[in-house]
């Protein structure tokens, strides 16, 4: 409901771009069936009505969860895998060694490289700061890393020249994990993906995000990332930033085809950073969050907007950051379908007009 990006987005679009139908229960208890051509409603008395209203279908594809209705079913478009399979390629480099910070050169090279990638290339750039040993946070000393993890739609031939550039870039900085910095070919995406799981047990996590555009990838990006990682290092925090590549097919859907904001529709990367610390140190929450604010704000300034599904909880301009100039239309739809603000959450459409949300149900 907030967009939905993945390593396949640059070839197939966002999750919201692939929704064909939605079933939902509205705030007044009606059951609605939503399609691109209209809305069928069944009210509590069993009376069925059919209209050409597509507003709710539009709002539920980008306008966020917990806001317009309770979705009970999505129908998605499915896609055949490419006949020549998928290429998976992961290559990690040390962020620094004892005497030299490699990160400046790596980010500068990425600034030039990422904008050249064809839409078949999806995936991530993942950066983890170097770490000082800190028994209080359960972290050990580490040189940090910057990793590209590509999932490429189609065969190896087209991918090779791009992958070769990564393989040839300072091979002495590569982390020698088995199977990395070389292409692996799979018949189906799932053959590879089924073995990937998100790590659990994050404790307390502060997350922040910025939607970076093609022109965000310049010296300023290198500076903001290395300064942010440096501040974290000095304070014994170990942030990880995951930049999901967007662009490609995502940019081909008309701006008004869904309610996602322009930053997500036109961007090249959704960059989400996070820092975790143990629950037992909850008294440090405000100190850690304020320490990371400058980095957070500088990253937001570099891009256009913030991804609704992975945002910071501290956002001054959340309406524009999430939805750009679409907010007034979203608010009008909210007022029509949920005039009493039965559904609400932190920084969701109409939430500033709803009664204060109890901390316990902030989503
Ligand atoms: C480890 C991790 C990895 C992630 N990776 C990605 C990624 O690769 N790509 C990406 O796009 N996002 C990613 N996200 C962000 C993810 O898209 C959001 O967290 C998203 O909200 C998850 O949906 P959910 O239904 O599981 O969440 P929930 O937290 O259950 O729901 C999110 C909001 O929607 C509301 N809601 C839930 N169900 C419904 C419903 N049926 N009808 C109406 N409202 C509802 C909830 O009340 C809440 O306000 C990741 C998040 C995490 C934690």
The assigned CATH architecture of the domain at 86-302 is 3-Layer(aba) Sandwich
Distance between the termini: 13 Å
Helix percent reads 25-40%
Bound molecules: flavin-adenine dinucleotide
Number of strands: 12
CATH topology of the domain at 86-302: Vanillyl-alcohol Oxidase, Chain A, domain 3
Rg computed from alpha carbons, rounded to a whole number of angstroms:
22 Å
Spatial sequence of strands, sheet with the most strands: 9-6-8-7-11-12-10
Q: Output the CATH class name of the domain at 86-302.
A: Alpha Beta
Taken in chain order, the helices and strands follow as: HEEEEHEEHEEHEHEHEHEHHH
How much of the residues is beta strand, in percent?
15-25%
- Note the main sheet: 7 strands, antiparallel
Summary of the model, kept short:
The chain is α+β, with helices and mostly antiparallel strands and 363 residues long. It is built from 10 helices and 12 strands. Keywords: FAD, Flavoprotein, Oxidoreductase.
Question: Strands, helices and their partners?
Answer:
Layout: H1 9-12, E1 19-25, E2 31-35, E3 38-42, E4 48-51, H2 55-59, E5 70-76, E6 86-94, H3 103-114, E7 121-128, E8 145-153, H4 156-168, E9 184-186, H5 189-193, E10 204-212, H6 219-234, E11 240-245, H7 262-266, E12 269-277, H8 285-302, H9 318-323, H10 327-337
Antiparallel strand pairs: 1-2, 1-5, 2-3, 3-4, 6-8, 6-9, 7-8, 7-11, 10-12, 11-12
Helix pairs in contact: 3-6, 6-8
The chain binds flavin-adenine dinucleotide (FAD).
């Amino acid at each position: 409901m907030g967009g939905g990006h993945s390593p396949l987005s640059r070839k197939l679009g966002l999750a919201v771009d692939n929704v064909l139908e939605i079933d939902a229960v509205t705030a007044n208890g009606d059951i609605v069936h939503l399609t691109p051509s209209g809305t069928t409603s069944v009210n509590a008395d069993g009376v069925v009505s059919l209209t050409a209203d597509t507003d709710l279908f539009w709002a539920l594809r980008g306008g966020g969860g917990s806001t317009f209705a309770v979705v009970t079913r999505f129908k998605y478009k499915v896609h055949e895998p490419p006949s020549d399979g998928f290429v998976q390629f992961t290559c990690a480099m040390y962020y620094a060694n004892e005497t030299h910070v490699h990160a400046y050169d790596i980010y500068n090279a990425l600034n030039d490289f990422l904008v050249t990638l064809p839409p078949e290339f999806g995936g991530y750039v993942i950066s983890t700061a170097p770490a000082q040993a800190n028994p209080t946070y359960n972290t050990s000393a580490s040189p940090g890393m910057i990793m590209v993890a590509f999932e490429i739609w189609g065969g190896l031939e087209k991918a090779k020249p791009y992958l070769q550039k990564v393989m040839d870039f300072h091979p002495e900085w590569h982390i020698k994990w088995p199977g990395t910095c070389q292409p692996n070919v799979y018949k189906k995406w799932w053959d590879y993906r089924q073995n990937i799981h998100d790590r659990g047990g994050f404790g307390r996590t502060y997350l922040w995000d910025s939607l970076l555009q093609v022109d965000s990838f310049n010296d300023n990006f290198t500076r903001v990332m290395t300064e942010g990682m440096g501040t974290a290092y000095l304070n014994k925090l170990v942030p990880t930033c995951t930049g999901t590549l967007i662009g490609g097919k995502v940019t081909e859907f008309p701006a008004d085809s869904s309610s996602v904001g322009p930053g997500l529709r036109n961007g090249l990367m959704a960059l989400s950073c996070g820092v975790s610390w143990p629950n037992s140190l909850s008294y440090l929450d405000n100190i850690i969050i304020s320490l990371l604010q400058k980095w957070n704000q500088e990253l937001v300034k570099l891009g256009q907007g913030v991804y609704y599904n992975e945002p910071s909880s501290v956002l001054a301009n959340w309406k524009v950051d999430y939805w750009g100039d679409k907010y007034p239309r979203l608010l009008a739809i909210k007022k029509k379908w949920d005039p009493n603000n039965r559904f609400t959450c932190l920084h969701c459409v109409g939430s500033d007009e709803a009664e204060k949300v109890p901390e316990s149900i902030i989503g």
